[in-house]
Structure prediction request, 237 residues.
Amino acid sequence: MTATHILKPRIKELIEMSEDHHCPPDKSQHCVKLTAIGNLPTRFGSYQVAAFYNNQDDKEHAAFIHGDVCNKEDVPVRLHSECLTGDTIGSLRCDCRDQLEESLKMIAKMEFGLILYLRQEGRGIGFNNKIKAYQLQDEGYDTVEANKMLGFADDERDYDIAAHMIKLLTIKSVKLITNNEKKIKDLKRHGIKITGRIPLEIPPNKFNKFYLETKRDKSGHLLAKLDEQIDGAVKKL
Prediction:
């Protein structure tokens, strides 16, 4: 029996339980519901895709599930924010697509794991503002400066909905696949037990080197290998 078939009955039960949960119409409390699940064979391995409704941002967030994560501890979890330019077009200005693909490959080799795909384009500022920030970066500002010039914090994301998604899948604790300590702190704040961190460092290219340095130096991302990777890339030139 393959991993894609193991989870089906449990997910069906979770969907039925979620259907009985009615969200308050005034949005006074965050409400997230698991609405559907389907098998998803991918080039990276065998997954299932789950769709979620929430009453806060009117966006459809997704979970990509490998193996049986229900009632498990130490579940490897990647929180991945949508990046149209990177994930879809293959932009070299960021490392988003590389992080997504490496996470899919990594989890597919494990017994179980999960990727939450969150519709938080541009670290939560939206696509239009993200491109405005790109325009400012083209003028010489870094990613943090550009966001602040547009009236935003360097990172506007909140992971309350992600925490709800994890809880709905009855996951007891997670090992977060991230370089971003803010994700760890925010998930803990929303009641998720974090038992460890799995680094995900992507070698830089000439277009995103400054961007990654800014994430490390100004946003506190844990990129211990970055200088070594940059030196290695320079030596190859």
Q: What stands out?
A: Residues 96-108 form the longest helix (13 residues). Residues 201 and 223 are 7 Å apart (CA to CA). Strands lie at 32-42, 45-54, 61-66, 75-81, 113-118, 174-177, 194-198.
